[in-house]
Design goal:
Layout lengths: L1 H20 L3 H14 L5 H55 L1
Helix pairs in contact: 1-2
Organism: Fervidobacterium pennivorans
Protein name: Flagellar protein FliT
Length: about 100
């Protein structure tokens, strides 16, 4: 039975890394919940290894979060520029109609 648990945890760990790489956070949450159920069955060494891998994963996720923030900031800046351009165009058309 222990070998089955070990294989299961290794498979889940691999899928967790793939979910992070593919930015599939919904699947990641499901996998973390699934993994949580197996944790009480693991040895102290296995738990320590998982903890160490999780520390690396947190760094990767932190970098991805920075990227998302930059993209959001650029998107918001672009949106404001477009709105500013549209407002300028609208003012020009308004003057033309009156004049």
């Amino acid at each position: 039975m222990e070998n089955q648990t070990e294989r299961d945890i290794l498979a889940i760990e691999k899928e967790i890394d793939e979910a992070i790489e593919n930015e599939d956070y919904e699947k990641l949450n499901t996998l973390l919940d699934e993994r949580e159920k197996l944790l009480p069955k693991l040895t102290e060494n296995e738990l320590r290894e998982i903890y160490e891998r999780d520390q690396l994963r947190m760094r990767v996720l932190g970098e991805k979060m920075k990227e998302f923030k930059n993209i959001a900031l650029k998107t918001e800046t672009g949106k404001k520029m477009v709105q500013s351009y549209i407002q300028t165009e609208d003012k020009g058309q308004e003057i033309d109609r009156r004049g």
